[in-house]
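Q: I'm building a small set of examples for a reading group on sequence design. Run inverse folding on the following structure and report the sequence directly after it, with nothing in between.
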């Protein structure tokens, strides 16, 4: 998380914050107290990249700084904003991902369970989010990929075990 994102999430005054906004702020504060989601500063180069990006699209400083920072350190840029995603791809960040993509990866790697998927989806909907159908598609895709991975591993393992033993030279006097 860049310092700009930290500011937008926790410091920037909001005129009419919703209950969902307040809840998400509290969750972020709790996680930061646990040592997660530390804000990172941007270099002068990052800020220059932001200025170049800002002239191309009307995005907030949080999205712009995150694109520049992720590109500089070679990490994925994860967003649910379509304009930010398109801009990130257009500047060559091949690691641009969506929030449902992250959800799918966490399911695939067994870092989220089936119950977690249901919790994430229902909490997202209760906070006015619109990504639930995409989370469900991502969930189905993760399960299919996991199944295919296990199937391939099982097929490879069974192919390496001979079904019949080769003839033993000691038992075959003709060789």
């Amino acid at each position: 998380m860049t310092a700009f994102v930290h500011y937008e999430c926790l410091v920037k005054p909001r005129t009419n914050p919703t209950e969902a906004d307040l809840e998400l702020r509290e969750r972020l504060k709790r996680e930061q107290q646990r040592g997660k989601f530390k804000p990172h500063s941007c270099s002068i180069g990052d800020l220059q990249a932001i200025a170049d990006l800002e002239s191309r699209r009307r995005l907030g400083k949080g999205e712009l700084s995150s694109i520049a920072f992720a590109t500089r350190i070679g990490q994925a840029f994860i967003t649910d904003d379509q304009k930010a995603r398109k801009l990130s791809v257009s500047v060559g960040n091949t690691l641009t991902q969506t929030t449902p993509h992250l959800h799918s990866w966490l399911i695939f790697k067994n870092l989220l369970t089936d119950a977690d998927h249901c919790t994430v989806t229902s909490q997202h909907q209760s906070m006015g989010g619109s990504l639930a159908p995409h989370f469900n598609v991502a969930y189905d895709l993760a399960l299919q990929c996991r199944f295919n991975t296990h199937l391939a591993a099982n097929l490879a393992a069974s192919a390496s075990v001979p079904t019949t033993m080769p003839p033993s030279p000691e038992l075959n006097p003709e060789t």
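The CA atoms of residues 80 and 109 lie 21 Å apart.
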